[in-house]
Amino acid sequence: MTSTDIEKFLRESVNQEPDAESGLDADELYGLYTSWCLLNNVEPETPDALWTALKGRGISPGSNHLTMKGPVAADYIIASAPDLD
After folding, report:
1. Are 23 and 66 a contacting pair, CB within 8 Å?
2. Per-residue pLDDT reduced to its tens digit, 49-84
3. Greatest distance between any 2 Cα atoms in the chain
4. pTM score, two decimals?
5. Using one digit for the tens of pLDDT, what is the confidence trace for 43-58?
6. Is 27 exposed, middle or buried (0-12, 13-18, 19+ CB in 10 A)?
7. Which three-class secondary structure state does DSSP give residue 46?
8. Across the strands, what pairs with 14?
9. Residue 35, number of CB atoms within 10 A of its CB
10. 70 CB contacts (<8 Å, ≥6 apart)?
11. Which of 33, 29, 27 has the alpha carbon at shortest distance from 45?
């Protein structure tokens, strides 16, 4: 994963909300990342590669204050919703 990709993912997909009780858990964070990859035509990395890249920026996948934002958040939420047919 390039540092440009991770920076773009973070800039376009998450907000740091220090007042948030809890942030995104590992599954939500990886799901958001894969949605971002699909929307940006980027091949997703493994979860371990994403965790390494995030930890290098001081972000823990299990303990953070990140919230979703933007079109990627909408894509992730719709993709995660149970089938309502």
Report:
1. yes
2. 999 999 999 999 888 999 999 999 999 998 888 775
3. 42
4. 0.88
5. 999 999 999 999 999 9
6. exposed
7. coil
8. 68
9. 23
10. 12, 13
11. 33
